[in-house]
Design goal:
Low-confidence stretches: 1-16
Radius of gyration: 19 Å
Strand order of the largest sheet: 4-1-7-8-9
Number of strands: 10
Keywords: Signal
Shape: elongated
Protein name: Lipoprotein
Helix content: 10-25%
Order of helices and strands: HEEEEEEEEEE
């Protein structure tokens, strides 16, 4: 019986950890995240207008001006050592972006990119028009 309890417990716990993304609210603006850069591990929401978010997979917010903070993890060469530049490590950066014209019902994409040690984020509308770029970057 014990052998059956552990696998069942694992199934129930994993089901609790997964929460689906809520449906899009047409009264709000929606921001998805993406990264086309190879070696990028994560682009995730951290804060909206200075408040921490419960779910970092997206932003859904009322129309108007907003400040977004995202976490961006990406690979950089570790350098030195026996492996030379072939060894990689992850760098974590927190970046903020201000955009004053979010519109209800609109779908936006926030794209994280990196060039070596330099990250950036860009906000695009649904037609891929560039709307804003990060205004501050803090990497650890």
């Amino acid at each position: 019986m014990r052998q059956l309890v552990l696998p069942l417990a694992a199934v129930f716990l994993s089901a609790c950890a997964y929460t689906p993304i809520p449906p899009v609210d047409p009264q709000q603006a929606w921001v998805d995240f993406t990264t086309p850069t190879p070696g990028s591990k994560l682009v995730m929401a951290q804060r909206l207008d200075g408040k921490n978010l419960d779910d970092g997979r997206f932003f859904q917010m009322p129309p108007g001006p907003h400040e977004l903070m995202v976490r961006f993890d990406f690979e950089v060469p570790a350098g030195g050592g026996l492996g030379g530049l072939s060894q990689m490590m992850y760098r974590t950066c927190f970046m903020t972006l201000q955009y004053d014209h979010f519109q209800a019902g609109q779908h936006y994409v926030l794209e994280g990119r990196s060039l070596a040690f330099t990250p950036n984020i860009r906000l695009y509308d649904s037609t891929r028009q560039l709307l804003a770029e990060e205004r501050s970057v803090n990497c650890i």
